[in-house]
């Protein structure tokens, strides 16, 4: 069991929660329990999770030098020497092959999306994460691509509104991630974030960009609620407006935590572990279900 612990930390199965985004199109269209949808989601979730773990190992290998001087990442199994480089690269290759195989079983179109995700992930790890602005645009695209992949796997086309909201919301989340990394660098007396294209002096600019993206995601949500498209899924659209304050709270909490130096992990994982954030998500979900059912109007 002791020997498996470093590997479990290296594979980062807790990060697989991000792949629940694959279910967003089915959840948003209230079709998740239709025949065949859940089975396709399971296949797509497994394939993305295997690819993700393979990518995490590869990314840790690329970032080995920078991780060893990072106050938190230096404790990762590869950076700390608990896992050998050769064994890690072998496991990464095996996970990649397994993920591609499962992805192929989920359908040819989904497989193409999976390959696109893989290429984008490799480009991000090797190059793009060091380029200012481009890195956050890539992170937002990778999150949104999961939603697109889930739609392709289940044959449920994500709406223009959903994809537009996703881009802005996840762009804000990406800026939160960079802001938190710079806050960590500043606390260590560093002027730049290791392995990134940002300096501590960029923090006010990042805060501005992140706040603007957050505001745009709320605006897109409001415009959707005021559009005729909402009638396709909600019997009482006016009830759905009650979810907007919870969305604003969710985004605001992320930024406050990052600004106070309390965001020491991935923002998406933070949302899954933070009780007030989970309450906001749960409240929004209840409101949207009631709006879908037409209650209490």
UniProtKB/TrEMBL annotation:
<dbReference type="InterPro" id="IPR044878">
    <property type="entry name" value="UbiA_sf"/>
</dbReference>
<feature type="transmembrane region" description="Helical">
    <location>
        <begin position="134"/>
        <end position="153"/>
    </location>
</feature>
<dbReference type="GO" id="GO:0016765">
    <property type="term" value="F:transferase activity, transferring alkyl or aryl (other than methyl) groups"/>
</dbReference>
<feature type="transmembrane region" description="Helical">
    <location>
        <begin position="43"/>
        <end position="62"/>
    </location>
</feature>
<feature type="transmembrane region" description="Helical">
    <location>
        <begin position="110"/>
        <end position="127"/>
    </location>
</feature>
<keyword id="KW-0472">Membrane</keyword>
<feature type="transmembrane region" description="Helical">
    <location>
        <begin position="20"/>
        <end position="37"/>
    </location>
</feature>
<dbReference type="InterPro" id="IPR000537">
    <property type="entry name" value="UbiA_prenyltransferase"/>
</dbReference>
<keyword id="KW-1133">Transmembrane helix</keyword>
<feature type="transmembrane region" description="Helical">
    <location>
        <begin position="277"/>
        <end position="295"/>
    </location>
</feature>
<dbReference type="GO" id="GO:0016020">
    <property type="term" value="C:membrane"/>
</dbReference>
<feature type="transmembrane region" description="Helical">
    <location>
        <begin position="83"/>
        <end position="104"/>
    </location>
</feature>
<feature type="transmembrane region" description="Helical">
    <location>
        <begin position="205"/>
        <end position="224"/>
    </location>
</feature>
<dbReference type="InterPro" id="IPR050475">
    <property type="entry name" value="Prenyltransferase_related"/>
</dbReference>
<keyword id="KW-0812">Transmembrane</keyword>
<dbReference type="Pfam" id="PF01040">
    <property type="entry name" value="UbiA"/>
</dbReference>
<feature type="transmembrane region" description="Helical">
    <location>
        <begin position="159"/>
        <end position="176"/>
    </location>
</feature>
<protein>
    <submittedName>
        <fullName>Unannotated protein</fullName>
    </submittedName>
</protein>
<feature type="transmembrane region" description="Helical">
    <location>
        <begin position="239"/>
        <end position="256"/>
    </location>
</feature>
């Amino acid at each position: 069991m002791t020997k498996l612990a470093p590997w479990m930390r290296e594979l980062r199965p807790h990060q697989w929660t991000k792949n629940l985004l694959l279910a967003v199109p089915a959840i948003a269209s209230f079709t998740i329990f239709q025949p065949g949808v859940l089975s396709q989601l399971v296949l797509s979730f497994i394939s993305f999770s295997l690819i993700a773990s393979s990518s995490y190992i590869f990314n840790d290998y690329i970032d080995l030098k920078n991780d060893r001087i990072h106050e938190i990442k230096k404790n990762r199994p590869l950076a700390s020497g608990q896992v050998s480089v050769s064994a890690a690269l072998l496991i990464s290759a095996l996970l990649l092959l397994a993920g591609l195989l499962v992805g192929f079983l989920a359908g040819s179109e989904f497989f193409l999306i999976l390959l696109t995700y893989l290429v984008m992930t490799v480009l991000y790890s090797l190059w793009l994460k060091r380029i200012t602005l481009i890195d956050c645009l890539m992170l937002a695209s990778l999150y949104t691509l999961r939603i697109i992949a889930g739609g392709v796997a289940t044959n449920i086309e994500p709406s223009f509104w959903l994809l537009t909201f996703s881009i802005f919301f996840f762009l804000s989340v990406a800026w939160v991630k960079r802001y938190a990394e710079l806050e960590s660098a500043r606390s260590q007396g560093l002027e730049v974030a290791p392995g990134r294209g940002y300096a501590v002096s960029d923090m006010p600019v990042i805060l501005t960009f992140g706040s603007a993206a957050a505001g745009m995601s709320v605006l897109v949500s409001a415009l959707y609620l005021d559009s005729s498209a909402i009638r396709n899924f909600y019997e009482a659209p006016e009830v759905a407006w009650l979810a907007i304050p919870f969305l604003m709270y969710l985004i605001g909490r992320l930024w406050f935590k990052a600004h106070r130096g309390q965001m020491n992990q991935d923002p998406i994982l933070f949302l899954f572990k933070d009780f007030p954030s989970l309450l906001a998500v749960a409240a929004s979900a209840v409101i949207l279900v009631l709006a879908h059912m037409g209650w209490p109007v």
